[in-house]
Amino acid sequence: MAKCCHHEAPKTGFSQRFRMALWIALILNASLFLIEVIGGMQSGSSALWADALDFAGDSFNYILSLIALGMSLYWRATAALVKGIMMLSFAAAIVIKVIWSYSNGQPPEVMTMGIIGGLALAANIVSALVLYAFKEGDSNMRSVWLCSRNDAIGNVAVLGAALGVFGTQSVLPDLIVAAIMAGLGWSGGVQIIKGALAERQQAKHHSHAHS
């Protein structure tokens, strides 16, 4: 999930093929983020909103990977800090949505959930296949491939929630999946913020030591 994606800057020798693979993954993830946000609003599914959090986190990481070569440690850490804060904000919004949906008690629209969940799963499979060639590369290359592979689990969970809603005609399967995914997103955001703050301090100390 989102917390697996706080990876290091690419090392020298960052290949053109890997850059192209990252662009493909970025376009897929950013597109699915928008689709899931809109789909979550249309269907009333909290699980889709929660999965959109994951796509947002991944999109930000692919952007960081693409530009990290030209950034110092301090600014990479600052960018990661912004991402962590965004993830916490989105996770909090999902929790509020879960509480509202529970009080409302209206099950989400299953067909929309299923279609968008299937599209999201296909997008992550394509991302994983595109990045598969780099799974034995440096830590950055390995981490972005593992992210796409692991994110497919979240998409399967959304499809499971859709089946659960269809079978029970209850909002609970959707809310349970959303709550779990929001919790993972919150945990990932906290970890990223802690790491980013530590890296900013490290960069400051390194700068002072060489000044």
TrEMBL record:
Sample GO molecular function, one term: zinc ion transmembrane transporter activity
Regions crossing the membrane: 20-39, 59-77, 84-102, 114-132, 152-169, 175-197
Transport as UniProt keyword: yes
Listed InterPro entries: Cation_efflux_TM, Cation_efflux_TMD_sf, CDF/SLC30A
Residue ranges of every copy of the Cation efflux protein transmembrane domain listed in the record: 22-197
Main subcellular location: membrane
Keywords: Ion transport, Membrane, Transmembrane, Transmembrane helix, Transport, Zinc, Zinc transport
The protein, known as: Co/Zn/Cd efflux system component
Organism this protein belongs to: Acinetobacter apis
Membrane topology, record value: Multi-pass membrane protein
One annotated Gene Ontology cellular component of this protein: plasma membrane
Gene3D superfamilies: Cation efflux protein transmembrane domain
Location of this chain's protein in the cell: Membrane
Pfam family, one: Cation_efflux
Source organism superkingdom: Bacteria
